[in-house]
Amino acid sequence: QALLPQYVNVQSVVNGNVVQFGAQTPPTAVAAAATEGNDVTPTAITVSAKTATLQQWQINASVSHLAMRGGSSIEAIVAGTLSGALAGAVDTQCADLFASFSQGVGSTGTALSLADMIEARKILQASGYYSAYKPVAVLHPQQWLQLWNDLAALGGVSSQDPNLVNGVMGQLVGADIVVSRWVGDDATDYSGGMFFREHAIGFGYNVGESGNIINVEGPYPDPDRGGKLIEGYSLFKVIEVNDTAGVELLSGMTAE
Questions:
Q1: Closest to 99 measured CA to CA, from 4, 199, 179, 183
Q2: In angstroms, how far is the first alpha carbon of the chain from the final one?
Q3: Helices within the chain (DSSP H only)
Q4: pLDDT per residue as tens digits for the range 54-95
Q5: Radius of gyration (C-alpha) of the chain in whole angstroms
Q6: CA-CA distance, 83 to 12, in Å (whole number)?
Q7: Contact (Cβ atoms closer than 8 angstroms) between residue 180 and residue 140
């Protein structure tokens, strides 16, 4: 199962391959005299449509008759492998958008710090977007290590900290922390992100005949190879909806 679509704006379509998301600029509230019968001028909010044209993702695997006689549930194992590959494609598309946010904290060659997280949270609060949920911070596993090292240096973490013992990512600076290995890694830097889940990123998908985002079918006879063919497919697209509703969290690989 893909991880990141749980934390973004999700729209599904039963037929067709185009999904729309509403993008808006937050308005500013103004004060007026508390006068009886005072006319109120309506505030205009411009909502534009951001369109996502879905892409088809497909992966097939051929399993030989010899492998299928191996005594294990090879069909289920292969099906799980194909599902994992498609889930990785979904999460990669989400995570690749973090670097496109025009707002960012941290820098190349330096470790992610608590100060960076606080600054990112401050930027989001100043953006004017309202969210019914906490912001989400998605980090590369090594960024999570960098952050914990910084917290430990500040005296805020011990080896028996419940988050470490239980493997729970938890929350920090008012944001839910999610760790994903699909976060950008260009052999020099990591590019995580903190964002408002309803506003920053849109995930559109076609549910398909099974009603699932990720579908695996088979096995079918594979006449070309003499075994069985298992097919995985998904129809989806991830786009940036509101640029200022997200902040890139940049840090260096050499700074663990």
A1: 183
A2: 29
A3: 65-68, 74-96, 114-126, 141-153, 162-166
A4: 999 999 888 877 666 665 677 788 888 999 999 999 999 999
A5: 23
A6: 19
A7: yes
Is the bond into 219 cis (omega within 30 degrees of 0)? Answer: yes
Q: Give CA–CA dist 39/19, Å, rounded.
A: 39
Phi, psi of 36 (to 5 degrees): -60, 130
Helix (H, G, I), strand (E, B) or coil at 112: coil
Query: What does the pLDDT read at residue 107?
Result: 93
Closest CA to 19 of 50, 46, 47: 50
> Is the distance from CB of 149 to CB of 179 less than 8 angstroms?
no
Q: What is the Cα–Cα distance from 213 to 19, expressed in whole angstroms? A: 14
Cα 49-130-12 angle, rounded to 5 deg: 40
Burial class (CB in 10 A: 0-12, 13-18, 19+), 202: buried
Is pTM beyond 0.85 here? no
Instruction: Give the closest residue to 125 by CA, choosing from 245, 5, 3.
Output: 245
Cβ pair 27, 219 in contact under 8 A: no
Q: Are 7 and 197 in contact (CB under 8 A)?
A: yes
- The label of the residue with tokens 């299928």 reads 68
Greater model confidence, 88 or 219: 88
Q: If phi over 0 gives left and psi between -120 and 50 gives alpha, with beta otherwise, what is residue 96?
A: alpha
- CA 98, 90, 236 angle in degrees (round to 5)? 110
**pLDDT tens by residue, 159-193:** 455 554 444 467 888 898 988 889 987 778 999 99
